[in-house]
Design goal:
534 residues; 7-stranded mixed beta sheet; alpha/beta
């Protein structure tokens, strides 16, 4: 192949996983690393203002702007799937909630045959990455690069939401990432001094001064280049020119649950029939590449509030915008400093569940469409999120064009159990929202509205208003069986010098937000790579 530069490791994607890998693999100074990122540097000022994520849902300059395919049964419409196309990836445009999931999630991975991925195995990697504002403990680290912070002020609506949950019989829980997840309490955010602490801020930028790290942004990966069954490099475009970089050690694919299977398929690794239909020579028939897609479906319950106390009012009133801007500028406080939710909880809505199956969040704003303008009345959204969906989908290339977005078919709510549990979750969080502690702040439930009570009526509402929490995983599944894409050391089966290290390797979706688990996967993956370094 035409050789331009040689590196020990080539990382494709500078998202949560890629930034973490870049930092850890260059730390010793022994290894030369290239990072290829399709998006630009993270200079957009709204990336660094926490509430700015609302402006980034539809900003094509930093967002892949993906959409799902309409489903065959329940959700027969496209659903927006924003993903970060910028240094930091989705950690530069997400809602910043720091959640790891449940102990049971990781013990289940181990039970599936993935040795070394039980909770006790992965906890040290969470602690290694974390700089916990509350200090170090059995569950938390305080010396890592990733800042995890409490809100810098409180909000009356949020405190009363917790009080309403406690009045309904739920326990208070001030640390969802500690001994147990169940209960209601405050969320922590990946912020530092009131600003976003993305994976780029935490890991990549401090490493940029190292002479052994090269980062190329606005560089679109075309394919992995193979020499026999060894990944020898990556072909990519930058500035209208196609380049090829050689990897003397390994190619590490870190594009996420959509872009990683897409790149493997474009490179000839995937279902043979799919590759053949798109004119791609089959390097290996790997049917599982792009299979097993999972995501968190959520149901929004929207309430009109009494008084100008939500972010809707900041958006709709000039005086409120000025006041919020000044409060943030001079104190890094107020609504502009918040992640997507101050508070929420984890509950067991389905009586058959042994651990929480629904996550709820109180969002201090309301919109009809994601990324659209807030309602013209004071509003909030109480979200019920299905934590462990049984439905599975696919990610498949549409053509051999590396710039064509993949076809994303999640099959939302295809499994009967998913619909049953999510409806039970809607009913449970609705009881919390109608408790007097919280209801004193509300005028009415606007969506779905009090007229929607039966399961069928709630299902009809979900068909129109169901959303996703933007947590796609699983499309390059890790497993002990030969049908899996990667083994427990994240090596692509049947190949040398090639690993996938990102959320796509999750065999099953964790019970909560996926940014912290993705960083954990990269921390552990970096250790695996270094342990086998030549």
């Amino acid at each position: 192949m035409p050789e331009q530069e040689t590196f020990d490791y080539i990382i494709v994607g500078a998202g949560s996983a890629g930034c973490t890998l870049a930092s850890r693999l260059t730390q010793s100074g022994r290894h030369r690393v290239l990072v290829i990122e399709a998006g630009p540097p993270d200079r957009d000022p709204w990336i660094h203002v926490p509430l700015g994520y609302a402006k980034l849902f539809t900003r094509k300059s930093v967002n892949w702007m993906y959409e799902t395919e309409p489903g065959p049964d329940w959700i027969r419409r496209p659903v927006a799937q924003p993903r970060g196309k910028v240094l930091g990836g989705s950690s530069s445009i997400n809602g910043m909630i720091y959640i790891r999931g449940q102990r049971e999630d990781y013990d289940h991975w181990r039970q599936l045959g993935n040795a070394g991925w039980g909770y006790e195995d992965i906890l040290p990697y969470f602690r290694k990455a974390e700089s916990q504002q509350r200090g170090a403990s059995e569950f938390h680290g305080a010396d890592g690069p990733l800042s995890v912070s409490d809100a810098r002020d409180t909000h009356l609506l949020s405190e009363d939401f917790i009080s309403a949950a406690v009045a309904q019989g739920y326990e208070r829980n001030d640390d969802f990432n500690g001994a147990r997840q169940e209960g209601f309490g405050p969320y922590q955010w990946t912020t530092r001094n009131g600003r976003r602490c993305s994976a780029a801020v935490a890991f990549l930028h401090p490493a940029r001064g190292r002479g052994n790290l090269k980062v190329v942004s606005r560089a679109h990966a075309r394919r992995i280049v193979f020499e026999g069954r060894r990944a020898a490099g990556v072909a990519y475009d930058v500035g209208g020119e196609e380049r090829t970089a050689r990897a003397s050690g390994e190619v590490l694919v870190a594009g996420g649950a959509f872009n990683s299977p897409q790149l493997l398929q474009l490179s000839g690794l995937g279902p043979a029939a799919l590759l053949g239909r798109n004119g791609i020579a089959v390097v290996a028939d790997l049917p599982a590449v792009g299979d097993n897609l999972q995501d968190h479906v959520n149901a929004p319950l929207i309430y009109e509030l009494r008084g100008a106390i939500s972010a809707n009012d900041v958006y709709n009133r000039l005086d409120k915008r000025i006041a919020a801007g000044l409060r943030y500028a001079f104190g890094r406080k107020g609504l502009l400093h918040m992640g997507v939710a101050y508070v929420g909880g984890f509950i067991r809505a389905n009586p058959r569940s042994a651990s929480p199956d629904i996550q709820t969040l109180l969002l201090l704003f309301s919109t009809t469409t994601i990324g659209g303008a807030p309602h013209d009345y004071p509003g909030c959204t109480v979200v019920a999120t299905l934590l462990r969906p049984e439905s599975r989908g696919t990610v498949q290339i549409r053509s051999a064009d590396p710039y064509a977005p993949p076809a994303i078919q999640p099959n939302y709510l295809a499994a009967d159990a998913d619909r049953e549990t999510l409806i039970a979750g809607m009913k449970a969080v609705r009881k919390v929202a109608t408790d007097p502690h919280f209801a004193r702040h509300t005028v009415a439930e606007r969506f779905p509205g009090p007229e929607a009570q039966s399961d069928d009526e709630l299902l009809d509402y979900l068909r129109v208003m169901m959303r996703t929490s933007y947590h796609p995983v699983g499309t390059c599944r890790m497993g002990a069986d030969e049908a899996s894409v990667v083994d427990e050391r994240l090596r692509v089966r049947g190949f040398e010098g090639l690993r996938v290290i990102d959320a796509s390797i999750m065999p099953t979706l964790v019970s909560g937000n996926t940014n912290a688990p993705t960083i954990m996967i990269a921390e552990k993956g970096a250790d695996m790579v270094l342990a086998e370094a030549r």
